Amino acid sequence: MIVNGENLTIQDIVKVAVMGEKVQLSPESIQKIQKSREYVEQIIQKDDIVYGVTTGFGKFCNVVISPEDTRKLQLNLIRSHSVGIGEYFPEEVVRAMMLLRINALAKGYSGIRLSTLQTLLDMLNKGVIPRVPSQGSLGASGDLVPLAHMVLVMIGEGEAVYKGEVLPGEKVMEIAGIKPISLEAKEGLALINGTQAMSAVGSLALAKAVNLSKTADICGALNLEALNGIIDAFDEKVQAVRPHSGQKLCAANIKKLLEGSEFITRQGEFKVQDAYVLRCMPQVHGAVKDALSHVKNVIEIEINSATDNPLIFPDDGRVISGGNFHGEPVAINMDYMGIAVSELASISERRIERLVNPNLNEGLPAFLTGNGGLNSGLMISQYTAASLVSENKVLAHPASVDSIPSSANQEDHVSMGTIAARKAMKIVENTQNVLAIELLCATQAIDLRRAKMGRSTKLGKGTQIVYELVRKQVPQIEEDRVLSEDVKTLAKLVDSGQLARAVEEWIGELR
């Protein structure tokens, strides 16, 4: 993959971070990087006062650093800022961080040497993945703490994972055949002053959330069949008179999934209208789709931006201190995404309740089990889903509304964007499990409904594909068994994106 700082996408990040695609710089980026560095060298020679190049950092911005100490300044920056704690980020998150920092530096506004950036590229391409603690970032000035831990390995310090083994930075660089760097003026700051940790977590969470949006439509369609739901609410005429984009997409998805189904009913055939969790899927799922579309737009601007400080503009002969490191755009949108995805779990759990509750499930056995009393069936699966939904409600409290001043009040408003991104990822993971439970319940309900309607009763074109995929991995529940492994299996199936891809191969794109 050729990166130039201009057109990286969420899917590109997945290809590199998850699938291991290799990366290289574009020729145009190489020229910009070299030109920017040449200008930094001129600044040093002229002894100009420039933040982070010939001065200290944060509140120390007024302390002038002598030319002979500029290297030590950058080394001290990385060491002093490596104060991360907590669990380590997963390897795919760190790979995404590395890619995003490379892409930001490829824009040519940071004054880094090409050889330094090539070291980070070599680490990414050869599988040297720094160990980066997940806690410690305020999200302004960018993700200083996690990015400093990333850079530690570049200078032969810290720790990294290489071929599944955790090794000291110096050792892993030697084994991988990469020479550690000695940081020159501006380089430490160029490497750590940016939003790449929050953007890395956020980008991967967003990719998963988009898949969950499609999966929620699939689960909802299966649920509609299991409860002999009414298809009329998904009519194009209903969506046309309230033409939110996501609402129209969800209704179209469900109609496409249910084409040919003999389980669904028409308005007035058996009942006049369904409960909200069935009838209002386009309005709820659709609002989530619209939210994710907005988040994607913001994140793809962010991942193709120069987010450090100061920025170098060699063509204009200027170095400008600004605030592009501030993570507020990411923070607000990670909170937004967390709230949106929480709603997918919330409505899913209520659909699960309708399936297992004998007062609501249109004549199916209580808790979807035969010999109820001796068997508890899927009673407790709803408990687990409810627990996850409740946890999401706590996690959905926004991080971006908080700020604590730092650096002696020089940095007096911060974004908490990395906290927002980490919370959003946890909400996504919880929602995967809720949808997995809905799949477990809906397929069980389909089997029981078929026993009432006849074994030859047809599912929709799309839902039949999903039903078969589920049944290949999780058999019908004949009597009580441990269900946690079934949920894990289906959660992996959801996370893989296989459900949506399999459906799309046969009935066309879900959106």
Write up this protein.
The protein is mostly helical. The strands form four sheets. A three-stranded antiparallel sheet has the order 4-6-7. The chain has a two-stranded parallel ribbon with strand order 1-2. It has a two-stranded antiparallel sheet with strand order 3-5. It has two domains: 193 residues, Fumarase/aspartase (N-terminal domain) (Fumarase C, Chain B, domain 1); 306 residues, Fumarase C, Chain A, domain 2 (Up-down Bundle).
Walk me through the topology.
Blueprint: E1 2-3, H1 10-17, E2 24-25, H2 27-46, H3 70-81, E3 85-88, H4 91-105, H5 114-126, E4 129-130, E5 133-135, H6 144-154, E6 159-162, E7 165-168, H7 169-176, H8 187-192, H9 196-226, H10 236-240, H11 245-257, H12 276-279, H13 281-302, E8 311-313, E9 318-320, H14 328-356, H15 379-395, H16 417-453, H17 461-473, H18 484-496, H19 498-507
Parallel strand pairs: 1-2
Antiparallel strand pairs: 3-5, 4-6, 6-7, 8-9
Brief summary:
Helices cover 56% and strands 5% of the residues. The protein has two domains: 2-194, Orthogonal Bundle (Fumarase C, Chain B, domain 1); 202-507, Fumarase C, Chain A, domain 2 (Up-down Bundle), CATH 1.20.200. Helix 1 (10-17) links the parallel strand 1 and strand 2.
Task: Name its key features.
5% strand; 511 residues; Fumarase C, Chain A, domain 2; mainly alpha; 19 helices; three-stranded antiparallel sheet; 2 domains; Fumarase C, Chain B, domain 1
